[in-house]
Amino acid sequence: MKHAHRFRIIAFLVCIAVIGGVFAACTSGDPNATSTTPSTAAATDSTDAASSAAGSQPPTNQDVVKLRFFQEEIWWPYTTWEGRIPEKITEKTGVALEVTIAADMNALNLMIASGDMGDLISSGQLFTRLSDSNLCYNWDELNQEYYGRDFEIHSATRFVNTAPDGNLYTVFVGFSPDCEWEANPKGVLEGAGLVVREDLLEEFGNPEVKTIADIENLMAQCKAAHPDIVPITFNIIYDAQILKILMGSSYQTTGFIDMDGKPKVFLKDPRLWPVYEKINEWYRLGYISDENLAFTQDSQDYDWMLNGKQMFASFHSAIADGWNRDLKAAGSPYRVKQLYDFEEPDAKNIVGNGAGWRGMFIPKSCANPKAAIDFVNYMFTEEGRHLALWGEEGIDWNWNEDKTYPILNYGSNRDGEDGYGQHGIKIWGFLNHQGFDNSLHLYGQDDSDATMGARQWLTDIAEINPVTAMIRLTPDSKEAVAMAKIEDLYKNMQVEIYTAPTAEAAREKYEEMLRLADELGALDLEAWAEPQYTNKKIEYDRIRGNLS
Questions:
Q1: Neighbours of 289 (CB within 10 A)
Q2: Which of 241, 265, 264 is closest to 254 using CA atoms?
Q3: How many Å apart are CA 497 and CA 272, to the nearest integer?
Q4: Mean pLDDT of all residues in the chain?
Q5: Residue 506 to residue 85: CA distance in whole angstroms
Q6: Mean pLDDT throughout 259-282?
């Protein structure tokens, strides 16, 4: 059953990216002609596709249009439009971006209020606000005006990105339809993971670590033999996600989950309590430290590992590779081992962002809508996606023998001389990837079999429901305000549950959190979301198996 879920789940993720990717290719007279699927397209002449997408002649310097581009995410890596790959994209599209990165999370709201939002916007938080015909162009409208047809994408991708008014204002990255995942089994997912120090594992007899009980046995031995070493740490971003996966709980920290076919606020997942009960037990046994729970930066667990202060680290599915490089460089006598293929019967990778997570919008303040939609159209061709994600074929990457996944010619997890930063490639950082494309390179990327094993395990047990992510809250609405208050409640009370002095006190804190969530509006949120969710789920299930 778990493997049966795999394609269903993966398909959900892939659809978001496929929306603009796999199926929206450009031709010279029509930038949205449907492309082949990746497995077939891999064998096609991408150069021909690219030239027809961008026009028969590459733009000259005089033809280049500079578009003011605003990125809502303050961490976005392209602070300037420089490097071989951005320059190649400009060569193909005739567009260069003047990049502005948000100073804070309120910057885009201020731009909307001012009426000047530049020429292109990337946003993940304001889908509902920007999906407004008074603020932004819909992509079908622009394609009809300049090319005589709608923006052509997979029906499931269109569905998950359609705004409440029925228009398509963006395509969120990270989603691909079921058919893409099923046709390309080399796609694997990233996610939470667990590593352990190999020297301590060897000291305690090098046992298999396949269950939560195995982890607990080793932590107990570590606590007894090395009281100065913390048995386990939680990364500030990934927290206890790996334990939630092992125990079959959702790890969402906002929005809705599906419970028996109905939308419930994320913290209502009844499978959360056994996780909290276990973490509280570990805390009271001294396996988790107060200092760890007070971390404010996502590098602190890394520092602890370099300094020999921890045994297990709950972090990412590929973290062992990077940490081991650094441990070797630091002259450390030990390495870490990535753990996977756990044998917990309830394990599920319940992915909560299955409808994508950010997209490009073309605001009505755009000085050159045609250049903007041309840029969007090219970026969602197969060539455009692969150029931005992986770099230039033959230089930065090559297909494997049967052209089912790319082999990167650089280290995709690091910058530097052998990395990608100097060329302007950011595998996870651009604007146009689908779920499938953004995972396909992972298959042939790493030297470590453990990294691939961890990713494959997450993929095999994945369950993704993009419809829960389609219940979008309008900024500043009473629903959005209520959800924000519940998110804050969750963040604050989760630590109180972790650190309660007894199991009974932890349970009381957990029940208090649920009661306060209802008082803050959780029940009203669920009543508001239910009819939307029911209708959208019926329609999504109807079209999810479509091939186009």
A1: 17
A2: 265
A3: 11
A4: 85
A5: 52
A6: 97
How high is the pLDDT of residue 8? 37
Strands (E), 355-428: 359-363, 397-399, 406-408
- For residues 349 and 242, the answer to whether their CB atoms sit within 8 Å is no
* Other beta carbons less than 10 A from residue 210's beta carbon: 14
- Summarised one tens digit per residue, pLDDT across range 69-94 is 999 988 777 788 888 888 999 999 99
Q: Average pLDDT for residues 286-305, to the nearest whole number?
A: 94
Phi, psi of 425 (to 5 degrees): -100, 130
Average the pLDDT over 292-321 and give the result.
93
- DSSP assignment string, 48-80: HHHHHHH-SSPPPGGGPEEEEEEES-TT-S-SS
pTM (2 d.p.): 0.81
DSSP alpha helix (H) spans, 55-209: 84-93, 107-114, 127-130, 139-147, 155-161, 178-183, 198-203
Ordered DSSP codes for 112-126: HHHT---SEEEESS-
Residue 36: HSE in the Cβ half-sphere, 13 Å Cα cutoff: 11
Q: Compute φ and ψ for 25, nearest 5 degrees.
A: -105, 160
The closest of 389, 379, 356, 466 to 124, measured between CA atoms, is 356
Residue 307 CB contacts under 8 Å (≥ 6 apart), including other chains: none
Count CA atoms closer than 13 A to 326's CA, side-chain side.
16
- Reading the block at residue 423, the tokens are 């060329």
Instruction: State both tokens at 84.
Output: 């071989």
Q: In the prediction, which pLDDT does 24 show?
A: 33
Name the 3-class secondary structure at 497.
helix
What is the SS3 assignment for 11? Answer: helix
Tokens of 534: 């029911």
Tokens, residue 24: 């929206």
Q: Give the amino acid at 395.
A: I
Q: Which of 202, 198, 447, 434 is nearest to 305 (CA)?
A: 198
Token pair of 67, please? 């578009």
Residue 101's SS3 state is: strand
CA distance 517 to 507: 15
Identity of residue 542: R
| Cα–Cα distance measured from residue 21 to residue 322, given in angstroms and rounded to the nearest whole number | 30
- H helices present in 407-520, as ranges: 437-440, 449-460, 466-469, 478-498, 503-519
Closest to 265 in 3D by CA, of 72, 533, 526: 526
| Nearest partner of 310 among 330, 336, 331, 329, judged by Cα | 336
> Which residue has 């041309």 as its token pair?
374
Six-digit token pair at 118?
């530049």
4 pLDDT above the threshold of 80 = no
Helix pair 272-284, 503-519: axis angle to 10 deg: 140
- In this structure, the dihedral spanned by the alpha carbons of residues 324, 327, 328 and 332, taken in order and rounded to 10 degrees, is -130
Strand partners, 350: 463
- CA-to-CA separations, 78 to 73, 74, 385, 426, 431, in angstroms, rounded: 11, 11, 16, 8, 11
